[in-house]
């Protein structure tokens, strides 16, 4: 594992494309997004109030959205780098390269035309509230939109964090709710998404190959799956109780603690940023969970070594590429870090498809491995020592996917 961007110091410095990302300061990176061609890594700074772009080819960084001032008063500048943002927490890049930014403190989503460098309001006003289902998204009100994902047909899904809902802006720009009644809770599994209750949904990941939207149900300590064909919601990881137990067992019998991000690789393995456990968890296609990275304590060490021994500090956004690199927004370490699957020597060579019975039960199904062929040449060769990890835990949300899907899901909002 190594640091991809950020020095670890909490600050925001505007960049013009010359500095390497590893020497550039970040301020609370909350989401990390990969462009459709996998040539650019976008970093959303929740407290830095901007979005930065890192070139995968040479490691240079530049600011593409936001001027670093945290304010919602500047609506559409029109230039994206001149606009102010209010605590952006998530982003999604569509198939043509344009970006949608969930502006948590501004209570809206912004659209950025990346070719022209212009920014526009995509949903709502800067006032908080809940209105607009069945009407134009431009008139809708939200309360702390946090996560965002979409499909190639123009549907954009938004986690309306403090309204306890997941909403969609359809291709015709009409807003609808797809999950959540608006009351905080954890009920509804096995029934319609719109009849279920959520508790502060955060990260989203849309899988068009299985027609499903995965939701980090942050304060319920779960990951839930919304089947977009029949609108049925289920839990796929987490018991609903905060904790860290359950590795090598069924994911639905394991404990999570405020999951912030979720991502799937090409062989159907699910990765979860288990924020308050300071870990990355992994769920096999057979539903077995284990720790993929992180020692389980708030810390910053581990670069250059095994990811399992590394310290994280409230990891939130997570995304991977086809070569097997997994990018993690390590929010309170003010870094983006990278885990290479080739370095994960601690993982067993086989994984069970069912919960083992008794201590002698042997796993039977080979774990599908990713095959990264390189670590970028700009990865640091020297990692300075860091302070001992702290076990202190903040009492509030840390000051915060995804690959572009290939097809539109069948919509059923009943």
Mean pLDDT: 83
Shape: globular
Please count the helical segments: 0
Biggest pleated-sheet summary? 5 strands, antiparallel
Order of helices and strands: EEEEEEEEEEEEEEEEEEEEEEEEEEEE
Low-confidence runs (pLDDT<50, min 5 residues)?
Answer: 345-396, 399-414
| Cα distance spanning the termini | 44 Å
Number of strands: 28
Helical amount among residues, as a percent range?
A: under 10%
Within the largest sheet, what's the order of strands? 2-6-5-4-3
Strand content: 35-45%
- Rg (CA only): 20 Å
Coarse structural class? mainly beta
Structure notes:
The chain is 0% helix and 35% strand. It is mainly β. A hairpin with a 4-residue loop joins β12 (156-160) and β13. It is globular, with a radius of gyration of 20 Å. It starts with a strand and ends in a 48-residue tail after the last strand. Residues 345-396 and 399-414 have low confidence and may be disordered.
Short overview:
With 414 residues, the protein is mainly beta. It has strands at 2-5, 16-20, 29-34, 40-45, 50-55, 60-65, 88-93, 99-103, 108-113, 118-121, 145-150, 156-160, 165-169, 175-179, 201-207, 212-217, 222-227, 233-237, 249-250, 259-264, 270-274, 279-283, 288-293, 315-320, 325-330, 335-340, 350-351, 365-366.
Write the SSE topology.
Elements: E1 2-5, E2 16-20, E3 29-34, E4 40-45, E5 50-55, E6 60-65, E7 88-93, E8 99-103, E9 108-113, E10 118-121, E11 145-150, E12 156-160, E13 165-169, E14 175-179, E15 201-207, E16 212-217, E17 222-227, E18 233-237, E19 249-250, E20 259-264, E21 270-274, E22 279-283, E23 288-293, E24 315-320, E25 325-330, E26 335-340, E27 350-351, E28 365-366
Antiparallel strand pairs: 1-26, 2-6, 3-4, 4-5, 5-6, 7-8, 8-9, 9-10, 11-12, 12-13, 13-14, 15-16, 16-17, 17-18, 19-23, 20-21, 21-22, 22-23, 24-25, 25-26, 27-28
């Amino acid at each position: 594992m190594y640091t991809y961007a950020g020095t670890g110091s909490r600050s925001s410095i505007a960049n013009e494309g010359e500095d390497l990302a590893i020497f550039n300061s970040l301020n609370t990176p909350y989401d990390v997004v990969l462009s459709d061609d996998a040539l650019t890594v976008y970093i959303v700074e929740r407290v830095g109030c901007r979005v930065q772009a890192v070139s995968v080819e040479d490691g240079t960084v530049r600011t593409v959205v936001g001027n670093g001032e945290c304010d919602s008063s500047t609506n559409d500048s029109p230039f994206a780098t001149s606009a102010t943002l209010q605590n952006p927490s998530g982003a999604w890049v569509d198939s043509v390269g344009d970006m949608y930014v969930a502006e948590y403190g501004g209570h809206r989503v912004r659209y950025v035309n990346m070719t022209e460098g212009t920014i526009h309001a995509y949903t709502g006003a800067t006032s908080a509230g809940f209105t607009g289902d069945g009407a134009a998204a431009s008139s809708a009100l939200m309360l702390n939109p946090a996560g965002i994902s979409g499909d190639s047909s123009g549907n954009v899904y938004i986690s309306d964090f403090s309204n306890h809902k997941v909403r969609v802006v359809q291709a015709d720009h009409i807003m609808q709710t797809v999950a959540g009644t608006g009351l905080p809770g954890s009920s509804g599994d096995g029934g319609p998404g719109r009849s279920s209750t959520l508790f502060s949904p955060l990260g989203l990941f849309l899988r068009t190959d299985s027609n499903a939207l995965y939701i980090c149900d942050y304060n319920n300590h779960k990951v839930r799956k919304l089947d977009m064909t029949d609108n049925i919601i289920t839990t796929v990881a987490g018991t609903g109780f905060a904790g860290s137990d359950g590795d090598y067992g069924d994911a639905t019998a394991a404990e999570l603690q405020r999951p912030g991000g979720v991502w799937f690789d090409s062989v159907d393995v699910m990765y979860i940023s288990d924020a308050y456990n300071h870990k990355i968890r992994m769920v096999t296609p057979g539903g077995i969970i284990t720790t993929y990275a992180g020692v389980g304590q708030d810390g910053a060490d581990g670069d250059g070594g095994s990811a399992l021994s590394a310290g994280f500090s409230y990891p939130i956004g997570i995304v991977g590429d086809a070569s097997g690199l997994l990018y993690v927004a390590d929010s309170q370490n003010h870094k983006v870090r990278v885990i290479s699957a080739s370095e994960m020597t601690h993982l067993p060579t086989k994984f069970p498809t069912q919960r083992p019975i008794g201590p002698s039960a042997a796993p039977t199904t080979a774990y599908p491995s990713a095959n990264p062929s390189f670590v970028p040449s700009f990865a640091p060769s020297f990692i300075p020592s860091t302070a001992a990890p702290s076990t202190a835990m903040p009492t509030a949300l840390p000051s915060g996917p995804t690959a572009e899907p290939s097809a539109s899901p069948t919509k059923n909002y009943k």
